[in-house]
């Protein structure tokens, strides 16, 4: 019962993470219009949350190894929820940037903890497939954000997206206070007041022959997150730039996220099997092909929606698999530090991606050119993920 509660609550946290990641993207056209934002200002707003995510992940994982994952996760969700509510109250570009930065700080602290908790609550042979499935709640949350955005046709303001995205994590945090068991790194040592002394950050990440593993994991996270967050933040605008309406652009975001959520379970099982290297290679080849397909859809909306759904399967699926793999390379006592560092480096890619797209668009590039320009990043991230398959996983 406890394991089921843990996985359900971790999935709920992942759902809200995905909801928030997508919310600013689907709200962007109306936010830009209301505040009269330039393309450059919009790019800064997109990246402010991801910069907060970087700081939160780097700090939150380490704090969790010291004080316990349950405490760190609850505190992070409360911060995330309160600051998302502040986003709904923003009156201009500056207040919006500040609210998004603090929201990202809470989100960043939450992610390494619910990833680690989900992994520790699952039997070793099932961790990749089960944790990937739990993390599939993220793109499903993104799809829900897209559906809320479509509700603008019924008269709903864009601020409702962030009001919903703020109230839900606060409720989840309250439920965790009473239903979530403490993490293994505390219960396994019998220390209710905190985890035992752990290695330094440098030793945790690079000691005991972990240096190559850590660097490959960081490279895979950085470039995969670069592509993913660029798509999550800019997909509605890019689809609009291909000649589709605002409503059609919102629906392609829904298709992208649903494709990722529905495809994650299958990809997780394939990557957990004996032919994982082959499926890593096929996943990243699929990412590149899907991006090229989205860039050349023409004016047929059904084709654009299908192309975005396929892109979601591979782009979102690749990142979810990396989330499931990261805890497997670090033992329990330093898992928060290792996963948090990988997520933090990935968040740097999340900052670069939206800024990269914004810079190209501000320079006069079209939507198709932006989509094709990120294919080389897919190649680098895929190479790192493939090399990672030769690295030894931790049995603890």
What does this entry look like structurally?
Helices cover 80% and strands 0% of the residues. About 2% of the residues have low confidence. It has one domain: Growth Hormone, Chain: A, CATH 1.20.1250. The chain is built from 16 helices and no strands.
Descriptors for this entry?
single chain; 396 residues; mainly alpha; Growth Hormone, Chain: A; globular
Summarize the structure.
With 396 residues, this protein is mainly alpha-helical.
Radius of gyration: 20 Å
Low-pLDDT segments, ≥5 res = 189-195
In the CATH hierarchy, the architecture is: Up-down Bundle
CATH first level? Mainly Alpha
Strand fraction band?
A: under 5%
What is the first-to-last residue Cα distance?
23 Å
CATH superfamily: MFS general substrate transporter like domains
**How many strands appear in the DSSP assignment?**
0
Q: What's the structural domain tally?
A: 1
CATH topology title: Growth Hormone, Chain: A
Coarse structural class? mainly alpha
Largest sheet geometry: none
Estimate the global geometry from the Cα principal axes: globular
- What is the N-to-C order of secondary-structure elements (H for helix, E for strand)? HHHHHHHHHHHHHHHH
């Amino acid at each position: 019962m406890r394991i089921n509660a843990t996985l359900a609550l971790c999935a709920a946290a992942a759902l809200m993470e995905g909801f928030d990641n997508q919310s600013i993207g689907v709200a962007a056209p109306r936010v830009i219009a209301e505040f009269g934002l330039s393309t450059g200002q919009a790019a800064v707003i997109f990246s402010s949350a991801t910069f907060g995510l970087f700081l939160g992940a780097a700090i939150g994982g380490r704090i969790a190894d010291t004080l316990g994952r349950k405490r760190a996760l609850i505190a992070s969700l409360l911060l995330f929820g309160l600051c998302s509510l502040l986003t709904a109250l923003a009156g201009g570009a500056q207040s919006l940037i500040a609210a998004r930065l603090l929201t990202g700080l809470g989100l960043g602290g939450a992610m390494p903890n619910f990833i680690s908790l989900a992994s520790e609550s699952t039997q070793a042979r099932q961790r990749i497939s089960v944790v990937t499935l739990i993390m599939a709640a993220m793109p499903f949350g993104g799809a829900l954000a897209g559906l809320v955005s479509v509700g603008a046709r019924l008269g709903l303001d864009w601020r409702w997206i962030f009001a919903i995205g703020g109230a839900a994590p606060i409720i989840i945090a309250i439920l965790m206070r009473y239903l979530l068991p403490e993490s293994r790194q505390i219960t396994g040592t019998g220390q209710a007041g905190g985890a035992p002394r752990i290695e330094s950050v440098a030793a945790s990440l690079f000691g005991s022959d972990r240096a190559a593993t850590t660097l490959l994991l960081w490279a895979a996270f950085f470039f995969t997150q670069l592509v993913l967050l660029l798509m999550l933040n800019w997909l509605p605008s890019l689809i609009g730039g291909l000649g589709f309406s605002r409503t059609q652009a919102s629906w392609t975001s829904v298709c992208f996220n649903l494709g990722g959520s529905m495809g994650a379970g299958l990809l997780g099982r394939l990557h957990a099997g004996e032919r994982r290297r082959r499926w890593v290679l096929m996943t990243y080849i699929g990412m590149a092909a899907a991006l090229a397909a989205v860039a050349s859809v023409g004016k047929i909306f059904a084709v654009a929606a299908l192309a975005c759904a396929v892109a979601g399967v591979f782009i979102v699926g690749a990142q979810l698999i990396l989330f499931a793999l990261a805890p497997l390379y670090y033992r329990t006592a330093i898992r928060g530090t290792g996963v948090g560092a990988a997520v933090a480096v990935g968040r740097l890619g999340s900052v670069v991606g939206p800024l990269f797209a914004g810079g190209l668009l501000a320079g006069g590039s079209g939507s198709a050119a932006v989509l094709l320009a990120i294919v080389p990043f897919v190649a680098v991230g895929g190479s790192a993920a493939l090399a990672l398959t030769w690295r030894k996983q931790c049995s603890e």
